[in-house]
C-alpha cells in the first residue's frame, strides 16, 4: 500500500544532501552536536526530542526517539510522561488563548 | 513458527533454536558482512588470545528462572550439571596456571549440589572468586538463605542481573515477581556488608536491554540505578555493567519471533567498533562447560564452538598450549563489538 509516510524513508534521511550538499551537511553536523552529552545528558535530550516529536507529530521522529529513549535507559512510564508534557503544553497553548477570546468577548459585550 | 513457551527451555520443547547448527546457519545466511572481514579491516587479521585472566566455569544449565533472553537456554528442566570429578579437573588446571581468578556461572550456579564445596576449594587455592547469582535463588529455598554469609566468608564477588530499577522491564524479561524478589535478595546481601563502603565485599549489577535495542551509556545508567535503588529501596551496590544481548539461543528466538531480527543485526553490524573488538573478553579468558570442554567464551560454549586446539578438555589443560591461541569467531560476535562493546564485565571500549 502506498502511503505518504514510509518507515523505510527514515533511513534515507541522510540523502537529503543529494539535492543540497552544503546545507544538508551543515545541518547533520549541527544535529550531531546538539545530541551530544552537554549541560543536559543524552538521556534528557532523548526525552525532550520524544516530547517534541509528539508535539510536531512527526512519525519518523516518534519511531527514532522511542528507540533512542529506550537505548538511553528510559522506561515506558518516563516516556509516556514526556508525551504528556507535550500534550499539556499543546493543550495549554490552546487554552491560554482562551484569555484572548475572553478579552475580545468582553470588548464586544455591553 | 510454533509458539515458544516461556516456562520451559527451548531444548525441552524440541525447538530448533536450541540447536547450535540451526542458529549458526541462520546467522550466516542473514546476508551481513562476515565478522572476520570487519576484524581484518580493523587490522585484527590475527585474532588471538593475549593472556589468561579469567577461568569462567559454567557449573550447569539448571536454573530456577527461565528468562526470555537467556543465552544458556537455562531452566528448571535442564539437567546438565558439572560433576565433582570435573570440578577437581578444574581445580587441578587452576593450580597449574598463574591465573587465579574464577568466574562461576550457570544456570544458577548455586543449584549445583557441589557448589559450596567447589567455592571452598577455590578459596583454599587462593582464588579470587566471582559468582553470577540471579538473586532470586537466595529466596528460592531455605537451604539457600544463608548464601549471603557464605559468599561473604569467601569474599566472593557477586554479579547479578537487574535489567531495570523498576518491576515492569525486569519482570517482562526475567519472569513475574522477579523484581520484588531481587530487591529482597539485594537487601540480604547489603545486610552482610555487600556494596557497603570499606566492607571489601563487592556486588555488581548487570543491565541488559529488555528488548531489541542496545544498552545505554554505562556510567550514566549506573548513576540512575544508584540514585533510584538507594532512594526507593535503600539498596547500595558497587558497579553496574551494561551488556548487549547476543543474538543466540532464546534471545535469537525472541528476535525472530518478534520480527526484530534483521533490524537488530543490522544495528549491531553498523555499530561495529574496532576498539571493542580488540578488547573483547575472549582475548584473555577461557570458558569451561559443565562437562569440562573448553571454549573461548560462554557464548561459543552455547554454540558448541570449542577452542582451536587439539586439547579441548580441562583435563588436558596446559597453560602454554592455550596462550596465543586463535579465537573462534562467528556472526554472533557482533554482539560483543557494538558501540561501547560488551563483556561479562560490562563495556570494553
Ligand atoms: S539468564 Fe540467568 S537467571 Fe535467567 S534463565 Fe538464564 S541462567 Fe537463569
Ligand atoms: S562472542 Fe565470544 S568469541 Fe565472539 S567476540 Fe564475543 S567473547 Fe569473543
Write out key terms for the chains shown.
heterodimer; A: 110 residues; mainly alpha; AhpD-like; 4 helices; extended; B: 349 residues; alpha/beta; TIM Barrel; 8-stranded mixed beta sheet; globular; binds iron/sulfur cluster
Number of helices of chain A: 4
What is the CATH class of chain B?
Answer: Alpha Beta
Architecture (CATH level 2) name of chain A: Up-down Bundle
Portion of residues in beta strands of chain A equals under 5%
According to CATH, what is the class of chain A? Mainly Alpha
Rg of chain A (C-alpha, Å): 19 Å
Main sheet: strands, sense, barrel of chain B = 8 strands, mixed
With helices defined by DSSP (H or I, 4 residues minimum), what is the helix count of chain B? 16
The total strand number of chain A stands at 0
Overall outline of chain B:
globular
Question: What is the structure about, briefly put?
Answer:
Chain A is an all-alpha fold and 110 residues long. Chain A has helices at 21-34, 42-55, 59-71, 76-108. The N and C termini of chain A lie far apart (57 Å).
Polypeptide structure, described:
The complex is a heterodimer of chains A (110) and B (349). With 110 residues, chain A is mainly alpha-helical. Chain A has helices at 21-34, 42-55, 59-71, 76-108. Chain A has one domain (14-108): AhpD-like (Up-down Bundle). The N and C termini of chain A lie far apart (57 Å). The two termini of chain B are 38 Å apart. In chain B, strands 6-5-4-3-2-1-7-8 form an eight-stranded mixed sheet. In chain B, 48% of the residues are buried. Chain A binds chain B through residues 37, 41-43, 67, 70-73, 75-77, and chain B through 164, 166, 168-169, 207, 209, 211, 213-217, 220-221, 224. Bound molecules: iron/sulfur cluster (2 copies). One iron/sulfur cluster is lined by residues 280-282, 296-297, 299-300, 327, 329, 332-333, 336 of chain B. One iron/sulfur cluster binds at residues 280-282, 296-297, 299-300, 327, 329, 332-333, 336 of chain B.
Amino acid at each position: 500500500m502506498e502511503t505518504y509516510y514510509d518507515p523505510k524513508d527514515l533511513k534515507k534521511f541522510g540523502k537529503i544532501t543529494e539535492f543540497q550538499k552544503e546545507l544538508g551537511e551543515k545541518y547533520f553536523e549541527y544535529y550531531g552536536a546538539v545530541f551530544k552529552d552537554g549541560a543536559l545528558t543524552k538521556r534528557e535530550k532523548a526525552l525532550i526530542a520524544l516530547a517534541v516529536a509528539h508535539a510536531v507529530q512527526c512519525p519518523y521522529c516518534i519511531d527514532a526517539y522511542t528507540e533512542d529513549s529506550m537505548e538511553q535507559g528510559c522506561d515506558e512510564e518516563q516516556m509516556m510522561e514526556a508525551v504528556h508534557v507535550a500534550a499539556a503544553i499543546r493543550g495549554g497553548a490552546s487554552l491560554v488563548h482562551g484569555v484572548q477570546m475572553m478579552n475580545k468577548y468582553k470588548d464586544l459585550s455591553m | 513458527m510454533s509458539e515458544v513457551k516461556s516456562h520451559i527451555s527451548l531444548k525441552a520443547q524440541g525447538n530448533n533454536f536450541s540447536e547450535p547448527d540451526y542458529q549458526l546457519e541462520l546467522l550466516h545466511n542473514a546476508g551481513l558482512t562476515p565478522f572476520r572481514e570487519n576484524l581484518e579491516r580493523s587490522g585484527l587479521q590475527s585474532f588471538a588470545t593475549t593472556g589468561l585472566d579469567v577461568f569462567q566455569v559454567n557449573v550447569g544449565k539448571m536454573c530456577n528462572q527461565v528468562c526470555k533472553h537467556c543465552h544458556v537456554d537455562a531452566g528448571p528442566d535442564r539437567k546438565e550439571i558439572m560433576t565433582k570429578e570435573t570440578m577437581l579437573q578444574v581445580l587441578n588446571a587452576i593450580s597449574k596456571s598463574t591465573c587465579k581468578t574464577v568466574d562461576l556461572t550457570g544456570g544458577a550456579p548455586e543449584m549445583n549440589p557441589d557448589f559450596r564445596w567447589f567455592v571452598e576449594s577455590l578459596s583454599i587455592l587462593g582464588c579470587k572468586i566471582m559468582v553470577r547469582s540471579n538473586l532470586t535463588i537466595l529466596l528460592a529455598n531455605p537451604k539457600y538463605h544463608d548464601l549471603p554469609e557464605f559468599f561473604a566468608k569467601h569474599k566472593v564477588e557477586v554479579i547479578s542481573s537487574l535489567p531495570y530499577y523498576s518491576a515492569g522491564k525486569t519482570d517482562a524479561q526475567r519472569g513475574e515477581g522477579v523484581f520484588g524478589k531481587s530487591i529482597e535478595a539485594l537487601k540480604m546481601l547489603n545486610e552482610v556488608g555487600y556494596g557497603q563502603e570499606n566492607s571489601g565485599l563487592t556486588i555488581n549489577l548487570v543491565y541488559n536491554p529488555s528488548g531489541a535495542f542496545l544498552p545505554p551509556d554505562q556510567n550514566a545508567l549506573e548513576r540512575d540505578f544508584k540514585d533510584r535503588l538507594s532512594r526507593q529501596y535503600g539498596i547500595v551496590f558497587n558497579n553496574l555493567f551494561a551488556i548487549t544481548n547476543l543474538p543466540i539461543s532464546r534471545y535469537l528466538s525472541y528476535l525472530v519471533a518478534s520480527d526484530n531480527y534483521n533490524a537488530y543485526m543490522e544495528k549491531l553490524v553498523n555499530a561495529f567498533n574496532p576498539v571493542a573488538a580488540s578488547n573483547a573478553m575472549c582475548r584473555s579468558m577461557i570458558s569451561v562447560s559443565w562437562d569440562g570442554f573448553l571454549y573461548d567464551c560462554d557464548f561459543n560454549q552455547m554454540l558448541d564452538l570449542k577452542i582451536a586446539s587439539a586439547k579441548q578438555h580441562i583435563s588436558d589443560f596446559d597453560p602454554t598450549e592455550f596462550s596465543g591461541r586463535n579465537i573462534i569467531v562467528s556472526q554472533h560476535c557482533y554482539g560483543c563489538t557494538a558501540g561501547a562493546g560488551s563483556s561479562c564485565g560490562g563495556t570494553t571500549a
